[in-house]
């Protein structure tokens, strides 16, 4: 009986520890508001993405991994991925963009795509992806 009680206490302590770790980790996550205006994000109105989205129910999300060592560092995006969620067909697609891809960054001319995040944060990085790859990304995550 004593071994069973000790085992229950240990399991409860482990569960509590995992919960507290997860809670502290989630509290460290920062959120940033970006413009949701199509023009600011480089989404071309002539392509009529809103109608296309309603029909296909595809959501594109940009995923950035930064090279900064701390929050105050201006960082480039070392990894850039695009997550496509196709609700109609219940499929996910994950595409990777090479960080040395040479593209036109709005206001900075031709340069590597990973510089866009350092030049203008998530808004410019998303705009660069949308304009150069004809996408309709509105959401992102940065790690």
From TrEMBL:
It comes from the Bacteria. The chain crosses the membrane at residues 6-26. Pfam families: LytR_cpsA_psr (PF03816). The keyword Transmembrane applies. Keywords: Membrane, Transmembrane, Transmembrane helix. Residues 76-143 form the Cell envelope-related transcriptional attenuator domain. Signal peptide: none annotated. Belongs to the LytR/CpsA/Psr (LCP) family. This is LCP family protein. It comes from Anaerosalibacter bizertensis. The lineage of its organism: Bacteria, Bacillati, Bacillota, Tissierellia, Tissierellales.
């Amino acid at each position: 009986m004593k071994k069973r009680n000790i085992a229950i206490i240990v399991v409860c302590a482990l569960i509590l520890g995992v919960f507290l770790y997860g809670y502290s980790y989630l509290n460290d996550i920062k959120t940033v508001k970006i413009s949701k205006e199509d023009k600011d994000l480089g989404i071309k109105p002539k392509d009529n993405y809103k109608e296309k989205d309603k029909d296909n129910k595809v959501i594109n999300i940009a995923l950035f991994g930064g090279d900064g060592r701390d929050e105050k560092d201006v960082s480039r995006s070392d990894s850039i991925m695009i997550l496509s969620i196709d609700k109609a067909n219940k499929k996910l697609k994950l595409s990777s963009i090479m960080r040395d891809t040479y593209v036109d960054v709005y206001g900075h001319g031709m340069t590597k795509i990973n510089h866009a995040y350092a030049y203008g944060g998530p808004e410019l990085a998303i705009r660069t992806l949308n304009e150069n790859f004809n996408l309709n990304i509105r959401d992102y995550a940065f790690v």
